[in-house]
Amino acid sequence: MKHKTILFLISILAITCLFGCKNEKNDTLETVFFTQDSLYKITFDKPLELDTFYVWEDIDDNSASHEYKYRFSKKSYPSQRETGFLWTSFADSTYRFTIIHNRNFYWKTLRDYNNDSSILQLKNRLEYRTIIGEITIDSLEVKKIVINNQAYAISKYKQNENYKNGYWTYYLVAYTVIDSNFISFTADCRSKNCDGFFDRFEKTIKSIKIERLNKTK
After folding, report:
1. 47 in Cβ contact with 28 (< 8 Å)
2. How many H-runs (helices) and E-runs (strands) does the chain carry?
3. Residue of 51, 191, 208, 215 with fewest CB within 10 Å of its CB?
4. Is the dihedral angle over the CA atoms 89, 60, 151, 98 positive or is it negative?
5. How does DSSP assign 71-136, residue by residue?
6. Coil vs helix vs strand at 215
7. Burial classification of residue 33, based on how many CB atoms lie within 10 Å of its CB (0-12 exposed, 13-18 middle, 19 or more buried)
8. pTM > 0.85
9. What residues have CB less than 8 Å from 119, skipping those under 6 apart?
């Protein structure tokens, strides 16, 4: 009788673990998309709450600054498409993941995120914006990380801008350069509750895989 009781308890624990692991595994979805001209295939684990996807060109005042943007967001939040100097912003309205590269991969860079000086420059730029009073930054962390053999500069911080009604925005940004092409990945949350946001999207960032497909461009 005692032996059967032990087996029953082990079975309950196994079932609990099975459903727990399944729920944890299914809160993200492996997502694949292709950049402009199908130059790169990008794969990452997307949180399921990001149920809306859209693409647009952010046109600036010179061709070198035009950007292609791919955004995954929650449909319950306003759709926002930045264009040039026109940036709409709403309080308590942001929960998204955006991938950005230069339009047509026109502008090339010599920056190398294997180089510690590039990491330091990124940190200094963010701190300078705070010094001149443009923004307020809290909990700033900048580091280098290698993901699937690709070097990234990662910045994580909370940012406060008064014109956005005083809400704090949580930012987790990954910058990388591949074939001299600059690509960034930005997760940001501006909400009454961004608890767990950093942990959730750090896992997403660490799942990124970039593959070059178009060998002729």
Report:
1. yes
2. 3, 10
3. 215
4. positive
5. EEE-TTS-----BTTB----TT-EEEEEEEEEGGG-S-----TTSHHHHHHHHHHHHHHHHTTS-E
6. coil
7. middle
8. no
9. 113, 142, 143, 144, 153
